[in-house]
Protein backbone atom coordinates (compact mmCIF):
# COMPACT_ATOMS: atom_id res chain seq x y z
CA UNK A 1 0.00 0.00 0.00
CA UNK A 2 1.32 3.39 -0.90
CA UNK A 3 -0.54 5.22 1.85
CA UNK A 4 -0.74 3.81 5.35
CA UNK A 5 -4.49 3.37 5.43
CA UNK A 6 -5.66 -0.15 6.17
CA UNK A 7 -8.06 -1.38 3.52
CA UNK A 8 -11.64 -1.60 4.73
CA UNK A 9 -12.79 -5.09 5.63
CA UNK A 10 -15.49 -6.59 3.48
CA UNK A 11 -18.10 -8.45 5.49
CA UNK A 12 -20.55 -11.13 4.38
CA UNK A 13 -24.10 -10.39 3.26
CA UNK A 14 -26.70 -9.93 6.00
CA UNK A 15 -28.71 -13.08 6.54
CA UNK A 16 -26.18 -15.26 4.73
CA UNK A 17 -24.17 -17.26 7.21
CA UNK A 18 -20.73 -18.76 7.21
CA UNK A 19 -20.76 -22.32 8.46
CA UNK A 20 -17.59 -22.55 10.49
CA UNK A 21 -15.45 -25.63 11.14
CA UNK A 22 -16.81 -25.89 14.68
CA UNK A 23 -20.22 -26.71 13.20
CA UNK A 24 -18.90 -29.02 10.49
CA UNK A 25 -19.39 -32.22 12.53
CA UNK A 26 -23.04 -31.30 13.14
CA UNK A 27 -23.63 -30.74 9.42
CA UNK A 28 -21.76 -33.90 8.55
CA UNK A 29 -23.84 -35.98 10.92
CA UNK A 30 -27.05 -34.45 9.60
CA UNK A 31 -26.07 -34.94 5.97
CA UNK A 32 -24.92 -38.52 6.48
CA UNK A 33 -28.14 -39.40 8.28
CA UNK A 34 -30.28 -37.77 5.61
CA UNK A 35 -28.45 -39.61 2.87
CA UNK A 36 -28.80 -42.96 4.62
CA UNK A 37 -32.49 -42.52 5.35
CA UNK A 38 -33.38 -41.34 1.83
CA UNK A 39 -31.43 -44.19 0.28
CA UNK A 40 -33.23 -46.65 2.52
CA UNK A 41 -36.51 -45.56 0.89
CA UNK A 42 -35.10 -45.84 -2.63
CA UNK A 43 -34.73 -42.10 -3.29
CA UNK A 44 -32.04 -40.96 -5.73
CA UNK A 45 -30.24 -37.66 -5.48
CA UNK A 46 -30.61 -34.94 -8.09
CA UNK A 47 -28.51 -31.76 -8.18
CA UNK A 48 -29.90 -28.81 -10.09
CA UNK A 49 -28.32 -25.36 -10.55
CA UNK A 50 -28.64 -22.67 -7.90
CA UNK A 51 -29.64 -20.15 -10.57
CA UNK A 52 -32.67 -20.67 -12.79
CA UNK A 53 -34.54 -18.53 -15.33
CA UNK A 54 -36.81 -16.16 -13.42
CA UNK A 55 -40.00 -17.27 -15.27
CA UNK A 56 -39.55 -20.78 -13.82
CA UNK A 57 -40.46 -19.48 -10.37
CA UNK A 58 -42.87 -16.79 -11.50
CA UNK A 59 -44.87 -19.44 -13.33
CA UNK A 60 -44.26 -22.35 -11.02
CA UNK A 61 -44.85 -20.76 -7.64
CA UNK A 62 -47.68 -18.45 -8.66
CA UNK A 63 -47.40 -14.70 -8.99
CA UNK A 64 -49.16 -13.85 -5.73
CA UNK A 65 -47.13 -15.99 -3.35
CA UNK A 66 -44.90 -14.42 -0.70
CA UNK A 67 -41.85 -15.76 -2.45
CA UNK A 68 -42.56 -14.34 -5.88
CA UNK A 69 -44.08 -11.11 -4.57
CA UNK A 70 -41.20 -10.03 -2.39
CA UNK A 71 -38.57 -12.62 -1.56
CA UNK A 72 -36.75 -13.51 -4.77
CA UNK A 73 -33.19 -12.56 -5.58
CA UNK A 74 -33.74 -11.77 -9.24
CA UNK A 75 -31.34 -9.97 -11.49
CA UNK A 76 -30.38 -9.34 -15.08
CA UNK A 77 -27.29 -11.19 -16.24
CA UNK A 78 -25.19 -8.24 -17.40
CA UNK A 79 -23.39 -10.46 -19.90
CA UNK A 80 -26.45 -11.28 -21.99
CA UNK A 81 -29.55 -9.67 -20.48
CA UNK A 82 -31.07 -12.96 -19.27
CA UNK A 83 -33.49 -12.72 -16.34
CA UNK A 84 -32.19 -14.98 -13.59
CA UNK A 85 -33.17 -15.85 -10.02
CA UNK A 86 -31.30 -17.50 -7.17
CA UNK A 87 -33.54 -20.46 -6.39
CA UNK A 88 -35.86 -19.75 -3.43
CA UNK A 89 -36.84 -23.43 -3.34
CA UNK A 90 -36.06 -26.54 -5.36
CA UNK A 91 -39.30 -28.15 -6.45
CA UNK A 92 -39.58 -25.97 -9.54
CA UNK A 93 -36.00 -26.71 -10.60
CA UNK A 94 -36.36 -30.44 -9.98
CA UNK A 95 -39.55 -30.60 -12.03
CA UNK A 96 -37.89 -28.58 -14.81
CA UNK A 97 -34.99 -31.04 -14.86
CA UNK A 98 -37.29 -34.06 -14.79
CA UNK A 99 -39.09 -32.73 -17.88
CA UNK A 100 -35.94 -31.58 -19.64
CA UNK A 101 -34.36 -35.04 -19.31
CA UNK A 102 -37.59 -36.99 -19.55
CA UNK A 103 -36.70 -38.76 -16.30
CA UNK A 104 -40.13 -40.31 -15.85
CA UNK A 105 -40.11 -42.02 -19.27
CA UNK A 106 -39.79 -45.44 -17.66
CA UNK A 107 -41.98 -44.88 -14.64
CA UNK A 108 -42.27 -42.72 -11.56
CA UNK A 109 -39.18 -41.41 -9.79
CA UNK A 110 -38.24 -40.89 -6.18
CA UNK A 111 -35.80 -37.98 -6.03
CA UNK A 112 -34.11 -35.95 -3.32
CA UNK A 113 -31.93 -32.87 -3.19
CA UNK A 114 -30.03 -30.76 -0.69
CA UNK A 115 -28.52 -27.33 -0.91
CA UNK A 116 -28.75 -23.60 -0.31
CA UNK A 117 -31.89 -21.58 -1.10
CA UNK A 118 -32.22 -17.79 -1.23
CA UNK A 119 -35.04 -15.58 -0.05
CA UNK A 120 -34.92 -11.88 0.65
CA UNK A 121 -36.65 -11.96 4.03
CA UNK A 122 -36.02 -10.10 7.27
CA UNK A 123 -33.21 -12.07 8.91
CA UNK A 124 -34.07 -13.41 12.37
CA UNK A 125 -33.73 -16.61 14.33
CA UNK A 126 -34.58 -19.49 12.00
CA UNK A 127 -35.05 -17.19 9.01
CA UNK A 128 -32.10 -16.37 6.81
CA UNK A 129 -31.51 -15.04 3.32
CA UNK A 130 -29.36 -17.98 2.42
CA UNK A 131 -30.58 -21.12 4.13
CA UNK A 132 -30.48 -24.81 3.36
CA UNK A 133 -33.14 -27.31 2.50
CA UNK A 134 -33.19 -31.04 2.09
CA UNK A 135 -36.17 -32.19 0.12
CA UNK A 136 -37.73 -35.16 -1.58
CA UNK A 137 -39.97 -35.27 -4.62
CA UNK A 138 -41.92 -38.36 -5.60
CA UNK A 139 -42.88 -37.70 -9.21
CA UNK A 140 -45.44 -39.75 -11.11
CA UNK A 141 -47.13 -41.24 -8.04
CA UNK A 142 -50.84 -40.74 -7.47
CA UNK A 143 -50.87 -41.43 -3.73
CA UNK A 144 -52.08 -41.62 -1.03
CA UNK A 145 -49.49 -44.33 -0.39
CA UNK A 146 -46.50 -42.26 -1.44
CA UNK A 147 -47.81 -39.25 0.55
CA UNK A 148 -47.76 -41.43 3.66
CA UNK A 149 -44.37 -42.87 2.75
CA UNK A 150 -42.85 -39.38 2.62
CA UNK A 151 -44.22 -38.71 6.08
CA UNK A 152 -42.88 -42.01 7.45
CA UNK A 153 -39.51 -41.12 5.95
CA UNK A 154 -39.49 -37.82 7.85
CA UNK A 155 -40.43 -39.58 11.08
CA UNK A 156 -37.52 -41.99 10.60
CA UNK A 157 -35.19 -39.07 10.00
CA UNK A 158 -36.24 -37.33 13.24
CA UNK A 159 -35.83 -40.64 15.11
CA UNK A 160 -32.40 -41.35 13.64
CA UNK A 161 -31.28 -37.81 14.51
CA UNK A 162 -32.43 -38.38 18.08
CA UNK A 163 -35.08 -35.64 17.88
CA UNK A 164 -38.39 -35.78 19.66
CA UNK A 165 -41.22 -33.30 20.03
CA UNK A 166 -41.67 -32.71 16.30
CA UNK A 167 -45.37 -33.16 15.62
CA UNK A 168 -47.20 -33.68 12.38
CA UNK A 169 -49.99 -31.43 11.16
CA UNK A 170 -52.01 -32.63 8.23
CA UNK A 171 -54.68 -31.25 5.95
CA UNK A 172 -56.17 -31.70 2.53
CA UNK A 173 -56.71 -28.68 0.33
CA UNK A 174 -58.64 -30.65 -2.29
CA UNK A 175 -58.47 -29.94 -5.99
CA UNK A 176 -58.82 -26.71 -7.94
CA UNK A 177 -62.56 -26.96 -8.43
CA UNK A 178 -63.17 -27.63 -4.73
CA UNK A 179 -60.87 -24.79 -3.76
CA UNK A 180 -62.66 -22.41 -6.13
CA UNK A 181 -66.03 -23.08 -4.53
CA UNK A 182 -64.51 -22.66 -1.09
CA UNK A 183 -62.66 -19.57 -2.16
CA UNK A 184 -65.83 -17.87 -3.44
CA UNK A 185 -67.55 -18.49 -0.10
CA UNK A 186 -64.45 -17.43 1.80
CA UNK A 187 -64.12 -14.13 -0.05
CA UNK A 188 -67.82 -13.46 0.50
CA UNK A 189 -67.38 -14.20 4.22
CA UNK A 190 -64.38 -11.91 4.57
CA UNK A 191 -66.13 -9.18 2.57
CA UNK A 192 -69.06 -9.35 4.97
CA UNK A 193 -66.55 -8.88 7.79
CA UNK A 194 -64.16 -6.55 6.01
CA UNK A 195 -64.00 -4.17 8.98
CA UNK A 196 -62.19 -6.90 10.92
CA UNK A 197 -59.46 -7.54 8.34
CA UNK A 198 -55.92 -6.26 8.92
CA UNK A 199 -53.90 -4.65 6.15
CA UNK A 200 -52.25 -7.91 5.11
CA UNK A 201 -55.61 -9.61 4.83
CA UNK A 202 -57.10 -6.69 2.88
CA UNK A 203 -54.29 -7.04 0.40
CA UNK A 204 -54.76 -10.79 0.09
CA UNK A 205 -58.55 -10.78 -0.01
CA UNK A 206 -58.76 -11.04 -3.79
CA UNK A 207 -55.28 -12.29 -4.64
CA UNK A 208 -54.72 -15.13 -2.19
CA UNK A 209 -57.53 -15.36 0.37
CA UNK A 210 -56.48 -18.84 1.51
CA UNK A 211 -53.34 -17.29 2.97
CA UNK A 212 -55.48 -15.12 5.24
CA UNK A 213 -56.30 -18.32 7.12
CA UNK A 214 -52.60 -18.60 7.88
CA UNK A 215 -52.51 -15.26 9.73
CA UNK A 216 -50.63 -15.03 13.00
CA UNK A 217 -52.46 -11.86 14.01
CA UNK A 218 -54.23 -12.63 17.34
CA UNK A 219 -56.93 -10.07 16.60
CA UNK A 220 -58.02 -12.05 13.56
CA UNK A 221 -58.09 -15.54 15.07
CA UNK A 222 -61.78 -15.51 15.94
CA UNK A 223 -62.74 -14.38 12.47
CA UNK A 224 -60.52 -16.94 10.83
CA UNK A 225 -61.69 -19.77 13.08
CA UNK A 226 -65.28 -19.20 12.06
CA UNK A 227 -64.50 -18.95 8.33
CA UNK A 228 -65.80 -21.56 5.86
CA UNK A 229 -63.55 -24.64 6.04
CA UNK A 230 -62.08 -26.05 2.90
CA UNK A 231 -62.47 -29.58 4.19
CA UNK A 232 -66.26 -29.15 4.06
CA UNK A 233 -65.98 -28.56 0.30
CA UNK A 234 -63.99 -31.69 -0.56
CA UNK A 235 -65.67 -34.18 -2.88
CA UNK A 236 -65.66 -37.96 -2.52
CA UNK A 237 -62.38 -38.52 -4.36
CA UNK A 238 -60.41 -35.96 -2.40
CA UNK A 239 -61.87 -37.23 0.87
CA UNK A 240 -60.97 -40.84 -0.01
CA UNK A 241 -57.43 -39.78 -0.84
CA UNK A 242 -57.12 -37.90 2.44
CA UNK A 243 -58.57 -40.83 4.39
CA UNK A 244 -56.09 -43.12 2.61
CA UNK A 245 -53.13 -41.10 3.88
CA UNK A 246 -54.50 -41.09 7.41
CA UNK A 247 -55.15 -44.82 7.39
CA UNK A 248 -51.52 -45.63 6.57
CA UNK A 249 -50.27 -43.18 9.18
CA UNK A 250 -52.49 -44.71 11.86
CA UNK A 251 -51.43 -48.21 10.85
CA UNK A 252 -47.78 -47.15 11.33
CA UNK A 253 -48.41 -45.37 14.63
CA UNK A 254 -47.56 -41.91 13.33
CA UNK A 255 -49.52 -39.45 15.45
CA UNK A 256 -50.90 -36.40 13.67
CA UNK A 257 -53.43 -33.67 14.08
CA UNK A 258 -55.63 -32.38 11.31
CA UNK A 259 -55.23 -28.65 11.01
CA UNK A 260 -58.02 -27.39 8.76
CA UNK A 261 -56.24 -24.04 8.42
CA UNK A 262 -53.01 -25.50 7.14
CA UNK A 263 -52.33 -24.28 3.61
CA UNK A 264 -49.05 -24.08 1.77
CA UNK A 265 -47.49 -20.94 0.38
CA UNK A 266 -47.18 -22.13 -3.19
CA UNK A 267 -50.05 -22.19 -5.68
CA UNK A 268 -49.23 -25.58 -7.07
CA UNK A 269 -50.23 -27.66 -4.07
CA UNK A 270 -53.38 -29.79 -3.98
CA UNK A 271 -54.87 -32.44 -1.73
CA UNK A 272 -52.39 -33.56 0.96
CA UNK A 273 -50.48 -30.83 2.76
CA UNK A 274 -48.44 -31.34 5.90
CA UNK A 275 -46.03 -29.61 8.23
CA UNK A 276 -43.72 -30.88 10.93
CA UNK A 277 -43.77 -28.40 13.79
CA UNK A 278 -41.94 -27.98 17.08
CA UNK A 279 -42.41 -25.68 20.06
CA UNK A 280 -38.68 -25.58 20.75
CA UNK A 281 -37.71 -22.96 18.19
CA UNK A 282 -39.82 -19.95 19.08
CA UNK A 283 -41.74 -18.30 16.26
CA UNK A 284 -40.08 -20.21 13.40
CA UNK A 285 -41.29 -23.63 14.52
CA UNK A 286 -41.94 -25.34 11.19
CA UNK A 287 -39.04 -27.63 10.35
CA UNK A 288 -40.57 -29.25 7.29
CA UNK A 289 -43.36 -28.48 4.88
CA UNK A 290 -44.71 -30.69 2.17
CA UNK A 291 -47.60 -31.87 0.14
CA UNK A 292 -48.99 -32.96 -3.16
CA UNK A 293 -48.58 -30.85 -6.28
CA UNK A 294 -50.35 -32.73 -9.04
CA UNK A 295 -50.84 -29.69 -11.35
CA UNK A 296 -47.22 -28.53 -11.51
CA UNK A 297 -45.75 -30.78 -14.18
CA UNK A 298 -48.54 -29.86 -16.57
CA UNK A 299 -48.10 -26.17 -15.74
CA UNK A 300 -44.50 -26.58 -16.93
CA UNK A 301 -45.62 -28.06 -20.23
CA UNK A 302 -45.32 -31.75 -19.36
CA UNK A 303 -48.05 -34.32 -19.58
CA UNK A 304 -50.22 -34.63 -16.47
CA UNK A 305 -47.99 -36.22 -13.80
CA UNK A 306 -49.04 -36.36 -10.17
CA UNK A 307 -46.35 -35.67 -7.57
CA UNK A 308 -45.75 -35.18 -3.87
CA UNK A 309 -42.82 -33.84 -1.90
CA UNK A 310 -41.47 -32.05 1.15
CA UNK A 311 -38.71 -29.62 2.09
CA UNK A 312 -36.89 -29.57 5.41
CA UNK A 313 -35.35 -26.37 6.79
CA UNK A 314 -31.88 -27.61 7.68
CA UNK A 315 -30.82 -24.76 9.99
CA UNK A 316 -33.91 -25.28 12.14
CA UNK A 317 -33.25 -29.01 12.45
CA UNK A 318 -29.62 -28.37 13.33
CA UNK A 319 -30.75 -26.03 16.10
CA UNK A 320 -32.88 -28.87 17.48
CA UNK A 321 -29.93 -31.25 17.25
CA UNK A 322 -27.75 -28.82 19.15
CA UNK A 323 -30.36 -28.56 21.87
CA UNK A 324 -30.83 -32.34 22.03
CA UNK A 325 -27.24 -33.36 22.49
CA UNK A 326 -23.64 -32.68 22.01
CA UNK A 327 -21.98 -33.31 18.70
CA UNK A 328 -18.24 -33.39 19.02
CA UNK A 329 -15.67 -33.63 16.35
CA UNK A 330 -13.12 -36.33 16.72
CA UNK A 331 -9.60 -35.05 16.56
CA UNK A 332 -8.17 -33.46 13.49
CA UNK A 333 -5.84 -36.35 12.76
CA UNK A 334 -4.25 -39.61 13.95
CA UNK A 335 -0.69 -38.49 13.44
CA UNK A 336 1.15 -35.18 13.55
CA UNK A 337 4.45 -35.19 11.71
CA UNK A 338 7.26 -33.09 13.16
CA UNK A 339 10.50 -32.59 11.28
CA UNK A 340 13.71 -30.61 11.45
CA UNK A 341 15.96 -29.73 8.52
CA UNK A 342 15.45 -30.11 4.81
CA UNK A 343 16.36 -33.79 4.37
CA UNK A 344 13.97 -34.62 7.22
CA UNK A 345 11.25 -32.55 5.60
CA UNK A 346 11.68 -34.49 2.34
CA UNK A 347 11.44 -37.79 4.23
CA UNK A 348 8.36 -36.51 6.04
CA UNK A 349 6.47 -35.89 2.82
CA UNK A 350 7.18 -39.45 1.71
CA UNK A 351 6.16 -40.90 5.05
CA UNK A 352 2.99 -38.81 5.30
CA UNK A 353 1.81 -40.11 1.91
CA UNK A 354 2.55 -43.70 2.96
CA UNK A 355 0.58 -43.30 6.16
CA UNK A 356 -2.35 -41.84 4.20
CA UNK A 357 -2.12 -44.84 1.85
CA UNK A 358 -2.55 -46.95 4.98
CA UNK A 359 -5.74 -45.06 5.83
CA UNK A 360 -4.42 -42.77 8.56
CA UNK A 361 -5.21 -39.07 8.86
CA UNK A 362 -1.95 -37.18 8.92
CA UNK A 363 -1.09 -33.55 9.51
CA UNK A 364 2.37 -32.64 8.28
CA UNK A 365 3.86 -29.64 9.98
CA UNK A 366 4.10 -26.77 7.49
CA UNK A 367 5.61 -23.33 7.76
CA UNK A 368 3.16 -20.77 9.10
CA UNK A 369 3.14 -17.01 9.33
CA UNK A 370 4.87 -15.94 12.50
CA UNK A 371 5.21 -19.58 13.57
CA UNK A 372 8.48 -20.91 14.86
CA UNK A 373 9.86 -24.12 13.37
CA UNK A 374 11.53 -25.04 16.64
CA UNK A 375 11.04 -28.59 17.81
CA UNK A 376 9.23 -27.33 20.87
CA UNK A 377 6.67 -25.27 18.99
CA UNK A 378 6.06 -28.10 16.52
CA UNK A 379 5.36 -30.45 19.44
CA UNK A 380 2.91 -27.89 20.84
CA UNK A 381 1.03 -27.99 17.55
CA UNK A 382 1.09 -31.78 17.67
CA UNK A 383 -0.51 -31.75 21.13
CA UNK A 384 -3.14 -29.25 20.08
CA UNK A 385 -4.09 -31.32 17.03
CA UNK A 386 -5.43 -34.08 19.25
CA UNK A 387 -3.35 -36.63 17.35
CA UNK A 388 -2.72 -39.92 19.11
CA UNK A 389 0.87 -39.96 17.90
CA UNK A 390 3.59 -37.56 16.92
CA UNK A 391 6.21 -38.75 14.50
CA UNK A 392 9.51 -37.00 14.74
CA UNK A 393 12.07 -36.97 11.97
CA UNK A 394 15.31 -35.08 12.64
CA UNK A 395 18.91 -35.40 11.56
CA UNK A 396 19.46 -38.57 13.62
CA UNK A 397 16.41 -40.27 12.17
CA UNK A 398 17.46 -39.39 8.62
CA UNK A 399 20.94 -40.74 9.30
CA UNK A 400 19.67 -44.06 10.70
CA UNK A 401 16.66 -44.38 8.35
CA UNK A 402 14.22 -44.45 11.25
CA UNK A 403 11.41 -42.37 12.70
CA UNK A 404 10.65 -41.62 16.32
CA UNK A 405 7.06 -42.38 17.23
CA UNK A 406 5.78 -40.68 20.36
CA UNK A 407 2.46 -41.43 21.97
CA UNK A 408 0.55 -38.27 22.92
CA UNK A 409 -2.49 -39.56 24.73
CA UNK A 410 -2.66 -40.59 28.35
CA UNK A 411 -4.51 -43.78 27.44
CA UNK A 412 -1.65 -44.74 25.17
CA UNK A 413 0.94 -44.05 27.86
CA UNK A 414 1.70 -40.48 26.93
CA UNK A 415 5.33 -39.74 26.34
CA UNK A 416 6.24 -43.31 25.42
CA UNK A 417 8.63 -43.25 22.58
CA UNK A 418 9.80 -45.84 20.08
CA UNK A 419 12.35 -45.79 17.32
CA UNK A 420 10.89 -47.53 14.31
CA UNK A 421 12.59 -48.35 11.00
CA UNK A 422 11.35 -45.90 8.38
CA UNK A 423 9.85 -48.62 6.17
CA UNK A 424 7.90 -50.09 9.10
CA UNK A 425 6.26 -46.96 10.49
CA UNK A 426 2.96 -47.39 8.68
CA UNK A 427 2.49 -50.98 9.86
CA UNK A 428 3.57 -50.08 13.37
CA UNK A 429 1.03 -47.26 13.64
CA UNK A 430 -1.83 -49.15 12.05
CA UNK A 431 -1.23 -51.94 14.59
CA UNK A 432 -1.23 -49.48 17.47
CA UNK A 433 -4.24 -47.52 16.36
CA UNK A 434 -6.41 -50.35 15.10
CA UNK A 435 -5.50 -52.49 18.09
CA UNK A 436 -6.29 -49.81 20.64
CA UNK A 437 -9.34 -48.13 19.16
CA UNK A 438 -11.06 -50.32 16.69
CA UNK A 439 -10.12 -47.45 14.43
CA UNK A 440 -12.25 -47.24 11.33
CA UNK A 441 -10.81 -45.74 8.22
CA UNK A 442 -13.96 -43.92 7.51
CA UNK A 443 -14.49 -40.24 8.02
CA UNK A 444 -18.06 -40.79 9.16
CA UNK A 445 -16.61 -42.47 12.21
CA UNK A 446 -14.91 -39.24 13.16
CA UNK A 447 -18.16 -37.68 14.29
CA UNK A 448 -19.58 -38.62 17.65
CA UNK A 449 -23.08 -37.81 18.80
CA UNK A 450 -23.86 -37.93 22.48
CA UNK A 451 -27.51 -37.34 23.22
P1 LIG B 1 -42.88 -19.63 6.42
O1 LIG B 1 -44.37 -19.65 6.44
O2 LIG B 1 -42.22 -19.83 7.76
O3 LIG B 1 -42.30 -18.47 5.68
P2 LIG B 1 -42.54 -21.21 4.07
O4 LIG B 1 -43.90 -21.68 3.73
O5 LIG B 1 -42.00 -20.02 3.36
O6 LIG B 1 -42.43 -20.96 5.63
P3 LIG B 1 -41.36 -23.45 2.75
O7 LIG B 1 -41.22 -22.70 1.49
O8 LIG B 1 -42.41 -24.47 2.87
O9 LIG B 1 -41.51 -22.42 3.97
O10 LIG B 1 -39.95 -24.11 3.13
C1 LIG B 1 -39.83 -25.33 3.85
C2 LIG B 1 -39.04 -25.13 5.10
O11 LIG B 1 -37.83 -24.42 4.84
C3 LIG B 1 -39.72 -24.29 6.16
O12 LIG B 1 -40.62 -25.06 6.90
C4 LIG B 1 -38.55 -23.84 7.00
O13 LIG B 1 -38.15 -24.88 7.89
C5 LIG B 1 -37.48 -23.64 5.97
N1 LIG B 1 -37.35 -22.22 5.61
C6 LIG B 1 -38.16 -21.50 4.79
N2 LIG B 1 -37.71 -20.24 4.68
C7 LIG B 1 -36.59 -20.16 5.45
C8 LIG B 1 -35.66 -19.12 5.75
N3 LIG B 1 -35.77 -17.90 5.21
N4 LIG B 1 -34.63 -19.40 6.58
C9 LIG B 1 -34.48 -20.62 7.13
N5 LIG B 1 -35.33 -21.64 6.88
C10 LIG B 1 -36.37 -21.43 6.05
MG1 LIG C 1 -41.76 -18.01 3.79
The strand count comes to 18
The biggest sheet, with number of strands, parallel, antiparallel or mixed sense and barrel status, is: 8 strands, mixed
Overall structural class, as computed from helix and strand content, comes to: alpha+beta
Using the alpha-carbon principal axes, give the shape. Answer: elongated
In which order are the strands of the major sheet placed? Answer: 1-5-6-11-10-9-7-8
Bound small-molecule species: adenosine-5'-triphosphate, magnesium ion
User: Kindly, what is the distance between the CA atoms of the first and last residues, rounded to a whole number of angstroms?
Assistant: 52 Å
Indicate the CATH architecture of the largest domain. 2-Layer Sandwich
Q: Report Rg.
A: 29 Å
- Tally of structural domains: 2
Oligomer: single chain
Find the CATH superfamily of the largest domain. Answer: Bira Bifunctional Protein, Domain 2
| CATH fold-type name of the largest domain | BirA Bifunctional Protein, domain 2
Count of DSSP-assigned helices: 15
Average pLDDT rating = 90
Query: Which parts are unreliable, with pLDDT below 50 for 5 consecutive residues or more?
Result: 439-448
Strand content: 15-25%
Top-tier CATH class of the largest domain: Alpha Beta
Helix content: 25-40%
Give a verbal description of the structure.
This protein has 451 residues and is an alpha+beta fold. It has 2 domains: 24-174 and 234-324, Bira Bifunctional Protein, Domain 2 (BirA Bifunctional Protein, domain 2), CATH 3.30.930; 335-437, Anticodon-binding domain (Rossmann fold). Helices cover 36% and strands 21% of the residues. The protein has 15 helices and 18 strands. Helix 1 runs antiparallel to helix 5 and helix 5 runs parallel beside helix 9.
Amino acid sequence: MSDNKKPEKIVGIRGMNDILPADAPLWELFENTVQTVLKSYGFQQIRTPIVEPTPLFARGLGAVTDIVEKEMYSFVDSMNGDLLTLRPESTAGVVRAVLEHNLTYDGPKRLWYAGPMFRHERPQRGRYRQFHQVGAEAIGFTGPDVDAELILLCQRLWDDLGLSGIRLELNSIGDAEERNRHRADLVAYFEQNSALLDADAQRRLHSNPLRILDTKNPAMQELVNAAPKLIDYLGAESLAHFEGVQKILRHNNIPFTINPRLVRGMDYYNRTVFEWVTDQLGAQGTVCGGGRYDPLVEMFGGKPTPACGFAIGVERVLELMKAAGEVTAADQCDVYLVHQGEPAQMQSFVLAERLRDAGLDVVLHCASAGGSTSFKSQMKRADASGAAFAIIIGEDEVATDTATVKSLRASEGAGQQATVPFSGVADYLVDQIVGDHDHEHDHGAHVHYKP
